[in-house]
Amino acid sequence: MIKRVFLIVLDSVGIGELPDADDFGDEGSNTLRSCYESGRLNIPNMQKLGLFNIDGNDYAEPCDKPAGAYGRMAEKSKGKDTTTGHWEICGLVSDKPFPTYPDGFPEEILSKFSEKTGRGVLCNKPYSGTQVILDYGKEHIESGDLIVYTSADSVFQIAAHEDIVPIDELYRYCNIAREILTGEHAVGRVIARPFKGEYPDFVRTPNRHDFSLVPPADTIIDELSKSGFDVIPVGKIYDIFAGKGFEKAYPTSSNADGMKLTDSFAHTDFNGLCFVNLVDFDMIYGHRNNTEGYTNALNEFDEWLGGFTKKMKSDDLLIITADHGCDPKTESTDHSREYTPLLVYGDKVESVNLRTRSSFADIGKTVTDIFGIDSKASGESFKDAILKE
To answer: What does the radius of gyration of the chain's CA atoms come to, in whole angstroms?
Structure first.
């Protein structure tokens, strides 16, 4: 019997283009391979779990006897963003993509936003998060206008200097935007992007906050909670689901912070799911095309993983996956439409090739199956394939 499941999402660690990648402009993307080709990748613990035994790997040496179950996940939803990926992991497949704004947001949205906030708007176009504060930060400080920008993802991002717009005020503006962005303009996330410093040496602070859509239907989070199981959200998990199904948030400021917090829960006697997102891969390295940094972050996670598995109890289960790709070597700085890895480990887990799963939702279905819940979520459980009799 499994008592605790640790589900860790390595944000954006894709492992190769999906068959429809060209529809998203992502043909040839492979986030993990790009890191491997840097010559700096050193992830022996994930390799032992079967990472390079996954179908589609043609560049790295597989393990002779993987210690866990392994496979790859195809995304069924029509998208490649954080919200879509996490919702699907938890059993909610999105048939319609969230709206995106390659030419900026329409005037009808911005005029309502300015009217309700009492502030003007700068930028209003797709932009790099670090470049936008460099290009518009000085004008923002002088005018008090808010820097509003987007990306290839379904996001409405508001950047503001913490000395000009206090954090609580920025969060209030984000809530205003969230209330405006409904119907055809219901973006996946409104994101607060505070920064500090003096021009041109602005730096983003850890006070980022995501204001997501509320999932339109119950996910496995709701099913677990209603069935009396603990559900612990580490990192931005709580925000991605707009708090739906959770009792408390456990935000983090970095991968290191998230791993430390996960360690603390390994010493906690809970019964249910510890759901972790490690965002630095995506936010700090993928979107900035920093292959070396991305690779080092994978190495640091792998080193931590070696210690974490030693803390696991006999009735624990570990699942490692991702929510999309963000290949740091491609010209684009945006997410990429990729398969994601599936690694499952624990004393009760068989070493088996789970091949290619047709949906991220198979993970959520498996988690509910393990806890004996007759889930209404999408997906197909692989519990019987991985658990020893």
So the answer is: 20
